[in-house]
Amino acid sequence: GSQPSIAATNWVLSDNVKGITPTLVIEDGKISGNAGCNNYFGALTSDTSTGSFVAGNVGSTRKMCDNMSVETNFLQMLSQANKYVVNGNVLELYKDGLLLMKFNKQ
User: Fold this and answer.
1) In this model, does residue 75 exceed pLDDT 90?
2) Neighbours of 57 (CB within 10 A)
3) Which helix (H) or strand (E) holds 37?
C-alpha cells in the first residue's frame, strides 16, 4: 500500500553486527551509506503510492575488512529489495512478502 516518502532520510540497520553497523542514507533518487566496511552508493527508484523500492547500479569502495560477510549480505539484500514499509521510526525492506532488513531512523 501507499507509504510516506523516504527521500532525505537517514537509517541505521537494527541488527547487532560485528564491526560497523550498516547505514542507509536516502536522497532523492540516490542511496549511499556504509555497508559494514566499505562505503556504497547507488541509484534509487521508489514510489510512495505502491511502496516500491528498487536500488540500482550499486557500487562500493574496495577496502578489505575482517568481517566481510556483513557487507556481502547487506549489499545482496539491498539489491534484492523491491518494497519498503515505514512504521514510525522503523524502515523495513522486503522482497515481495519476505522481510529482508529493518532499519531505525537516525
Assistant:
1) yes
2) 9
3) none
C-alpha cell read off for 105: 531512523
CA distance linking residue 31 with residue 8, whole number of Å: 10
Q: Give the model confidence (pLDDT) of 3-30 as tens digits.
A: 999 999 999 999 988 889 999 999 989 9
User: What is the separation of C-alpha 28 from the centre of its chain, rounded to a whole number of angstroms?
Assistant: 14
Backbone angles phi, psi at 46, to 5 degrees: -135, 155
What pLDDT does 67 receive? 78
Q: What is the pLDDT of residues 51-66, one digit of tens each?
A: 999 999 999 999 988 8
E strands, the chain, are 9-13, 23-27, 30-34, 39-47, 52-60, 83-87, 90-95, 98-105
Q: Kindly tell me the burial class for residue 74, based on how many C-beta atoms sit within 10 Å of its own C-beta (0-12, 13-18, 19 or more).
A: buried
The cell for 29 is 533518487
Give the Cβ contact number of residue 21 at 10 Å: 17
